[in-house]
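INFO worker-7 received task bundle
INFO bundle size: 2
INFO processing item 0
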Amino acid sequence: MDLQMPEMDGFEVAKRIRKFRSRSWPLIVALTASADEHLWEKCLQAGMNGIIRKPVLLQGMADELKRLLKRTNDGV
């Protein structure tokens, strides 16, 4: 989910999804170009499960998705 959207930012969308859905499904992965080191905490607080930073590198995206799927399968 892109964090910088025109009508409503990704944090608000994630909070609204989590209001009606579980913490683990659907998986919500933030997409951002921000270098803010505290951004991961903000994403977690909004109910997101992961973060991918731009520029998107295929290996970085694959690693994050594998991590999320492993945590989901492990029941974390």
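INFO item 0 finished
INFO processing item 1
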Amino acid sequence: MAEAGGTPPKGAVLMSASKYIARSCKDVNKAFMECKAKDLNPSACLKEGEAVTECLLKLLKRLHTEAPEEFNSYVKCMDYHSNNLEKCRKEQAILEEKCPE
């Protein structure tokens, strides 16, 4: 998991958390995308981008707190299978049982 100034999360972490991200960070992601659609200047939407990052980091912390073994197992499966969700349905179901959306 990335902390401020740390290593960003790997793709497998983001893929494994994607359903949770879609729900938990929906509003801040929407605000960021609307800002980017209005202004292509990269510095125009820094505040919105920071809100997305903050939401994601809080969510990953929650997943690591509430279901550390289940989340890590799912991430490892996704990483091993190149983010092929179909190969990791068992791990996904275990995580979702432990930590419903």
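INFO item 1 finished
INFO post-check item 1: The two ends are 19 Å apart (CA to CA).
INFO post-check item 1: The longest helix spans residues 46-66.
INFO worker-7 idle
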